[in-house]
What does this fold into?
Amino acid sequence: MMIEPLYIDGHGPLHRVPAAPKLALLVVAGLVLFAVRDPRWLGLAAALAALLVWSTGVGAAALWRQLRGLIWVLAAIGVFTLVFQGWLAAAAVLLRIAALVGLALAVTLSTRSSALIAVCEQALRPLQRLDLLDAGKVALALALALRFVPEIWRHYQEIREAQAARGLARHPLALVVPLVVRTLKRAEQVAQAIDARS
Amino acid sequence: MLIEFDQAVVATPHSQALKGVSLTLAQRRIGVVGPNGAGKSTLAKLLNGLVLPTTGRVLVDGLDTRRDLKAVRRRVGFVFQNPENQIVYPIVREDLAFGLKPLGLPAAECARRIGARLDELGVGHLADRASHTLSGGECQLVALASVLVMEPALVVFDEPTTQLDLRNRNRVARAIGALDRPAVVVSHDLDLLGDFDRVLVVVDGRIAADDAPGPALRWYREHCA
It folds into this structure.
């Protein structure tokens, strides 16, 4: 499995909207979706979200890779709500989550990660003026997370392979300990590299 | 570019990585060789203040690495052994921009510099690639570009070809050869240092030999093999 960047190069209508208004609308939409309880409105929102995702020009295969992990979570929530609160509530919950995930996906598919990080940095500036945090450092932390998640996943696979090659069965502790040690060592080297360039 | 080591000692609680090194470095290409754990990387990291001397001083163009750390880092770029650790942003272009951020240049000038540096090293086509998808050789060249884009006066390389195949090793060697500024290169790849101006052999925290590449590398082969 390969963790791929979400952004898709394209010229759809969403690509032309700057990152800040997209993120602001996403926040507002999230709040509104939680206030709405009527499944008909939620269905409309989910349909709109699907339309927006489609407008980014994402391929069906890539979309499936992004969403297949979510299906099981949705199924579990759906069944649980159906049993305890009836089908109307289950439909509302599922449509609400579908709409939210769709809208968030539409934003990430149509916005470069660097633009998203830049908006976060801008949004945190007022807190920096109050001396509560360093917006630049928060932005760097976000970038580092995006950069190194695929690498940590690769390390996990390498450790798993090395243990499989020695005939060891899958054991959580035997995987987690070397992974944490390796990640911490790596973090130290990355910190030094950042120091060297600052 | 003038670098002076004045009785520089680097000590940890358990051992001494460098035991009182005094040197003056002014040549354009200086190689550093030595056995594993001899103190080569420590010596290299003293040059831009990643390691500070426990006692003694290191001066870069008269600037003390302890007192004028920021100015020294501006002057001395550092390319690490594992370039993957050096590329900290998710996209290649963003990573190069990260180094330029403190300089406060206009966006257009940043973009121009980034494009020019990547093209110079023959990796212009990688500008929009995700960092974690680069191969070892591409990674090393991008790491070099990310250092050069900041226009350092001196570039320090810590084993730049150790993890590369022959073709990529040659690409990096050519890039070092073509560099328009002085370089200090720590390496186990002795062929890389053959046409350098000066080679230091570090053994057990001391400079054991300091000569032209021919005699210095001969000494190293005779005494450390």
